[in-house]
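Notes taken during the Thursday session

The instructor put the following on the board and asked us to keep it in front of us for the whole hour. The protein is Mast/stem cell growth factor receptor Kit. We were told not to look anything up and to reason only from what is written here. First, the residues (801 in total):
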Amino acid sequence: MEYHCVLFTVLLQLIVQPARSRPTITPEGPQLIVPLNDDFSLHCQSDSSVRWLREDRPTRILKEQRQGQVTVLKVSKAGPQHMGKYSCREEASGEKSSIYVYVKDPENPFRRNIMFDFVVGEGETTTLPCLATDPRMTDLHLQKCDGQPLPNTLRYSSSIETGITLEDVRKDFEGCYVCVGTLEGNTVKSGLYQLNVRLVPDAPPVITLGQPQRVLLIQGEVLSLSCNTSNVNSDITIRWKAPQGVVRSQKNKTKFYAFLCADKGFIILRSVNNSTKRVRAGESLSLRVVMDAYPKPHTFSWSYSGVKLTNTTDHVITSRSHGNRYDFVTLLQTILNTVPHELFTPLLIGFVAAAVILILILIVLSYKYMQKPKYQIQWKVIEGIHGNSYVYIDPTQLPYDHQWEFPRDKLRFGKILGSGAFGKVVEATAYGMSKADTVMTVAVKMLKPSAHATEKEALMSELKVLSYLGNHINIVNLLGACTIGGPTLVITEYCCFGDLLNFLRRRRESFYFTTLGEDSYYRNLSSCLIYSPFHFFLCLFLSVGFLSHCVFIVIFNKFVIHLGDSYRDSDAVSEIMQEDGMTLDTEDLLSFSYQVAKGMDFLASKNCIHRDLAARNILLTQGRVAKICDFGLARDITTDSNYVVKGNARLPVKWMSPESIFECVYTFESDVWSYGILLWEIFSLGSSPYPGMPVDSNFYKMIKEGYRMESPEFAPSEMYEIMHSCWDADPFKRPSFGKIVEKIEQQISDSTKHVSPGSHEESGSHVQRLNSFGSHITATQPLLSSNDVFLEGTSPRHPPV
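Then, after some discussion, the predicted structure tokens were revealed:
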């Protein structure tokens, strides 16, 4: 037997794929500790393209620099807002590495928050943002503000990086809570958090078919089905179920089906609702409702659990003595031993009692009269300075140029733009203001029929002051007046986009933040809309002329806006809606700051003090031109929470300088202080100054001790330096408005400087003073005689001859 050996050779090639490594972050470690106001940078090394993200702000973009295989993220002047987990993620594979950054603040063991009230649905999970600024903090736990024990069913988890998380929230969890921890052997506490729990209705969604439930079709015929669903809790998920083989298509939320005879059966539509809407702590929730109704509804409102919601503001009232001055009364009593007359004694008692009652009545009436707000002009024109005291010009003594007169019969009044305690501002159409055939939209100030002689004299004084000041692009200019043949009417420019405060607040959702230089930047996508579990309305804050309105919009084929007791259709507000659709960025904020500084520099050159400079007193018109105004009679300060009772007056305390608060002194330098507060409002996008601080004795004490606000989140460091210089305790160390204009000019682009007035306008300084009432009046001409002012697309007019 013969054997054959066959040799097989098998070659195996082993290919080992290297495992993809995660990006590497430098400095190494899970956390980085940065002292307050220090700069820091994070380096991420990876072979592929990466991107830096903040995990607590997933929608915001961080600007980084690519240097070879290393991507560098730089942050200057670290503050509490820079705390959080930073992640470097590969865009191709999704692999990421993270590092937590602590910004160590010795004075604040917990990061300071803006939001302290939380509204949570029952059964939901919420997190109290008790974030430690020092990683050495231990034993983080939750306590009730009043020291009472926690509810038995309350369960929570704690972390110094994420805060305290409450799960399965119940109604009995409502109350005030505080986070407590241990740092270097000392017990530290966070701010107070108010937890409000709302009941979530447990009800299935309602489905309504637009066709009969039984339909007879011919073979090949197309069936169009539509249904309406409603739900009291939140969004719902809709799912169609049809016989097998049915061809479905979708167009504009309407389902179309092409059926065959063999496809007979039931088509079922199911909807599932989600009873919770989770929002990250500190973020805003945007809700939108589209509604069709016939006839059109006339009123709209938000409600919760059947209760209509309204905006409420706590009015803080304080009173204190000044100068520690006391009055002492010495009573000298002489006793005489006399025999009373039998008839005289009862008459004397009755007379004394009647006199006492009469005196009490007179005291009560006098007190009420003194407490009644009086209409006065905030703007004051200085005649001269004697030492530290200012001598003001009596506006009633200023002359009035009758070239400003405008015929009453050429005014057509429209909607009421604003109403105060003494008068109102009305939108009007002026015919022939510049030429015989021109039509111009204007704002007209007028008194109410109940106004007294003092209010009439004050309105006339305001007219004289405006005519004295002359024109400037950054103030609300005088266009004309009607003083003959009827009540006084003051005609001014109409600013179509309302006041700066509400403009900033409604533009938060589209704000795009960029720092000056190479620092990191974020894109702010937070929204500022109102949510209710039963109704969804879009709240648009319009501010036209001299009063802000919260307007509820319902979307039909065209917009209908409810303003006061009347309506304005979409054609009339198309410009406003177009402006609201534009984005807002840091350049715009710098532009607003620059324009207001230019306007205040102009007022200072005219020896005029504003005394109430704030974002609510800045109006915007076409091209986002900012104009300084005095609301005067159009604002009822008794219902405005920004004006706090101090003594026998209501004052905007949070905008006032220390010398104005404690010494009742108003100067150019006190206006500079108010301008610093205005800058804080602008770069915080309309937040209230000194957030969370009521105006009480502690507030006055902190101002005296030198407390100043921190830099707002969106302020470049250069702008915060200007703010801080405006808040110098020594008024003479504060910069003038001319210096402020020069500093801001170094930061803005050339395209922004177009808002400045023409070169022919005169600009003065604080050293120029008035020697007599008429020393500067002759140089002031009626506004529309110049060629550099254009209003609402019209040409300037010349005063009538």
